[in-house]
Design goal:
Layout: H1 19-24, H2 35-44, H3 58-69, E1 80-85, H4 88-107, H5 111-119, H6 124-127, E2 130-137, H7 154-172, E3 176-180, H8 185-192, E4 198-207, H9 217-220, H10 253-264, H11 275-284, E5 293-299, H12 316-326, H13 330-337, E6 341-346, H14 364-381, E7 386-392, H15 396-408, H16 412-415, H17 424-441, H18 447-458, H19 461-475, E8 480-482, H20 485-497, E9 505-507, H21 514-523, H22 539-557
Parallel strand pairs: 5-6, 5-7, 7-8, 8-9
Antiparallel strand pairs: 1-2, 2-4, 3-4
């Protein structure tokens, strides 16, 4: 008798194919009609840096997020979490973080590579209508998830795979996606309130692209090139190949985009003015009046001069302030040459108040009054054009160094410089004063109160005024051109209070003070001038303001490639 033949039980769920079917047509699972389309999407994926301000439809965003959620995850752990960011204040804070990180990384590179990094556009954080931060929830012990006991970082790899899914889906929908990892991870995590054990994989800028690059941007910029396939594929075992090239040591979205659009119309190579182009883009995105403006000079005496920290007598403050009023100080003359009016604010001439070492620089009432005065003047002056800021105050490089040390959490050695004409013994006395002042104040409170307390207890009258001026100008949507260390620490305090202030700042110059470079880096700003200026009084800010005004005039006068 022959064997009876029975039909194969076919499951009603899961895989209905049989071993015989799979053996007969091993390629039957292929999505043949989609292969070419997939190859086009993969080949056309780009890291987009420029975005239109137009909103992304909710269904397109959901498609991108769903693609990420369908990514492969080790042990089906699904460790990804997607944080969608639309709030302007969060984007501003993140952009300032990225700017700081970019400058920190560039500082450790060879000059040419550093310039290449600084030329890369990172404005997508502000321009793109959406930010998506992919976070990895790593709180489940690795040993409890299949596949992670031996490869503990497989959860991070899973999140990276989810990002690739999102990237390809965005590209298929015509959306641009840029992956920005120039962040200190802890800073970004704190900004978004991530709990301990949840890590970020950076910031994804998502929106309609305002560029359509035919090849990867870093390749086109000459940063790197794509290796031939045969150089990255090996058979059976490792074969030594060339190591990757190391580069170590070596405002409103619509307004931002519109300003850049106008610049793109110029008969000029994009970015032809270097750092100045970025400044002009930022200014043109704000309602800053053409031409003119004001140099605000805040002046105050400092009791800290009693410790021998300055080469000049305290009476010089009043002399320079008087010359500023009369229009004959260096700052006033430089301002006049740049087409700026001059406004002197007496922030404590003849009143030295606290000496930092034994007593607070300012009492609460005085600090609040000076800060509010600066805020009022900043708001009023923003309507007249650029607001350049300067200061006059014998001994204030010591005061500014103390504030910088507190805000940056740095020791006195990192921030104390020579000031004007100081010798080695004087520098040592300045360092000792800053150390004693920091020890007296101790750890500062968290949040806005802590920032204000730092300015009140360690700063001087002019720094309080200037912090108010910066906040007032930014609030009125104007632009502040910074001068030296004292003006920059005031601006840093303002940014710590209101991160969006960073978009309203221009670093006019980098002075000789060692702490100044650290403060500018923390602000994420590149200086327009690096002339080793020691003058104070707003000289560097006035010179830079003149350069900015010339740049704006240049943009107005250069031929355009199409009618406006």
């Amino acid at each position: 008798m022959g064997r009876s033949m029975y039909g194969r039980p076919v499951p009603t769920i899961g895989d209905a194919s049989s071993a015989a079917e799979r053996a007969q047509t091993p390629d039957a699972w292929a999505l043949t009609d989609d292969i070419e389309s997939l190859a086009r999407v993969v080949g056309a994926r780009r890291d987009i840096r420029r975005f239109r301000p137009d909103p992304v439809p909710e269904e397109a965003l959901e498609a991108v997020l769903l693609a990420g959620h369908r990514g492969p995850s080790v042990g089906h752990s699904q460790p990804w979490r997607f944080i969608v960011v639309t709030a302007a204040e969060t984007r501003d804070a993140a952009a300032a973080m990225a700017d700081r990180a970019r400058l920190r990384q560039a500082s450790g590179m060879a000059e040419e590579s550093a310039r290449g990094l600084l030329d890369l556009r990172l404005e997508g954080i502000r321009e793109a209508p959406l930010g998506v931060v992919v976070a990895c929830d790593r709180r489940t012990p690795a040993a409890g998830i299949l596949g992670r006991a031996t490869f503990p970082d497989a959860d991070l790899w899973s999140c990276a795979a989810a990002i690739e899914n999102m990237w390809l889906t965005a590209r298929a929908h015509g959306l641009g996606l840029g992956w920005v990892t120039l962040f200190e991870p802890e800073e970004l995590a704190n900004l978004l309130g991530l709990p301990t054990g949840v890590e970020t994989l950076g910031w994804l800028c998502l929106g309609w692209p305002d560029e359509r690059p035919p090849e990867p941007g870093l390749e086109r910029a000459g940063w790197s090139r794509r290796l031939p396939l045969d150089q990255v594929v090996m058979r059976e075992r490792w074969v030594e190949v060339d190591a990757p090239e190391s580069h170590l040591r070596a405002p409103d979205q619509a307004d931002v985009v519109a300003a850049r659009d106008r610049a793109d119309d110029l008969l000029a190579v994009p970015g032809s003015l270097g750092v100045l182009d970025g400044v002009l883009d930022r200014i043109e995105a704000l309602p800053v009046a053409d031409g003119g403006g004001t140099l605000v000079v805040a002046a105050a005496d400092h009791a800290v001069t009693a410790y021998g920290v300055s080469a000049f007598d305290a009476s010089v403050t009043a002399d320079v302030a008087r010359a500023t009023r009369e229009g004959t100080s260096m700052g006033a003359v430089a301002a006049r040459a740049a087409g700026l009016d001059v406004e002197l604010i007496d922030a404590g001439i003849g009143s030295r108040r606290g000496d930092l070492v034994a007593t607070d620089a300012l009492d609460e009432e005085t600090y609040a009054a000076l800060r509010d005065l600066g805020h009022e003047r900043g708001r009023a002056l923003a309507a007249s054009g650029l607001v350049a800021v300067g200061e006059v105050g014998i001994g204030n490089t010591t005061v500014a160094a103390a504030v910088a040390a507190a805000l940056l959490d740095r020791p006195a050695d990192d921030v104390v410089g020579r000031g004007s004409s100081a010798d080695a013994a004087m520098v040592e006395r300045k360092r000792e004063v800053v150390e004693r002042a920091l020890a007296r104040v101790g750890p500062r409170p968290e949040g806005a109160f802590g920032i204000h307390e730092t300015l009140r207890r360690l700063g001087g009258g002019e720094i309080a005024v200037l912090a108010g001026v910066v906040l007032g100008v930014a609030e009125a949507r104007g632009v502040v051109v910074l001068d030296g260390l004292a003006t920059s620490v005031a601006a840093l305090a303002a940014v710590r209070l209101e991160p969006a202030v960073a978009a309203h700042l221009v670093a006019g110059q980098r002075s000789r003070e060692v702490g100044h470079a650290l403060v500018l880096r923390e602000l994420g700003l590149e200086p327009l001038l690096d002339l080793r200026i020691r003058a104070g009084e707003g000289v560097g800010a006035a010179l830079a303001a003149g350069l900015v005004s010339d740049g704006r005039e240049l943009r107005r006068g250069v031929a355009r490639t199409r009618p406006v």
